[in-house]
Amino acid sequence: MAPSFLSVAKFVEVIIRRRFSSAGLSLQTLPIDSETTIQFWGPPPSLSPENIEKPSLLLLHGFGPSALWQWNRQVKPLSLAFRLYIPDLVFFGGSTTTSSCSNENRSEMFQASCMGKLMEKLGVERFSVVGTSYGGFVGYNMAKMFPEKVEKVILASSGVNMRRSDNEAFIARAKCHRITEVMLPSSGNDLRRFSGMVSSRKLDFVPDFVLNDFCQKMYSEKRKEKAELLEGLTIGRDDKTNVTPLQQDVMLIWGEHDQVFPLKMAHDLKEMLGKKAKLKVIQKTSHIPQTEKNSMALSCLSCYLPLLQSNCNIHIKKKTCVLIPHLAYVRNVTLKNFFY
C-alpha cells in the first residue's frame, strides 16, 4: 500500500469533501440511541429545518463505499433546490452500532429504522427519499414504516422484488461462489470485476496500484460487519417476493443493461407497486445510471420532484471526476436546463 501522501484515493477524497462543503453541507455525527451512531452530511447545525425554506431530501447510498463516494456528482445540483441529508448507512463510513449481531439487527429494516430515527433527531418532519441499490431497499422500508413522513420515493436500480433465484443468478453472472466475493472486493482485481458488473465503463486500463489504493480506501474497514449485513438481508432470502404497493408516489430509475438487477425486474416491480409507480429506463447504462449518465438521471428527478421544475434556468458547468466504481474517466459535464 502506498504512503498516504502518495495515495490517489486520498487526494480524490479531499476534492470530493470540498465539493460537499461547497454545496453547503457539513460532516456531522449523531447518536440516535444508546447503541447506534450515524455519520451524515447535512445542513450546518445552526440552520434548523424550520429556518430553511427548501424541502428535505434524503439520499441513501448503495452497498459499497461510503455516501461521500456515491453521491459526489449529485450534491451540487440537488443542493440548489433541496435541503440535503446524506448519511452513511450503519457499518459504512463513520456509522456504527453495538447492537447484538442478529439478522434482525443487520437487516434492511434495521437500517430503515435507524434512518428514521436520524431524521426524527434532526427535527425533519417531512422528506422525500432517493435510494440507490441497497439504499433503495432501505428507502422502500422507510416508506412503509413512516408513511406520514416520507413524501415521495425514488428507487434507482433497486431490486426490492429480488428472489433467491435472482440472487443466485447474479452470483453466477459474476462467476463467483458467494455474494461477498463480489460486494466486498479485497484487491484491485476484485474491484475491477466489481466495476465490470455495476458499470458499462471498464477499468482495464487503470493500473493495479491505483485500484489497490482505492480498494484499500473504500473497502478495508468493517468487512466482517458488512458481510453480516449481506447475511441479514430479508430481500432475496426466499423464492417469493414480499413487495406491496406504497401509499407514496414512486419513481423507478433503471439502467438498460443492469447486470445486478436486470431490466425485467424493473418492469415486474412497477407492476407490483401499482398505479402510483413510474419507470424511467436510462439507455446505454448499467447498474449506476446516476453516475454513468448523471444529467439524464437528474432530468428524471426534475420530472418527478416538484420543486426542481421551477428551477428551469439553472446552468451548471463543472469539471467532474468520475470515481470508483466510476473512476474510469474525467470529463467536462454541462447540465443546461436539465431542470424542466
UniProtKB/TrEMBL annotation:
This is AB hydrolase-1 domain-containing protein. Residues 55-292 form the AB hydrolase-1 domain.
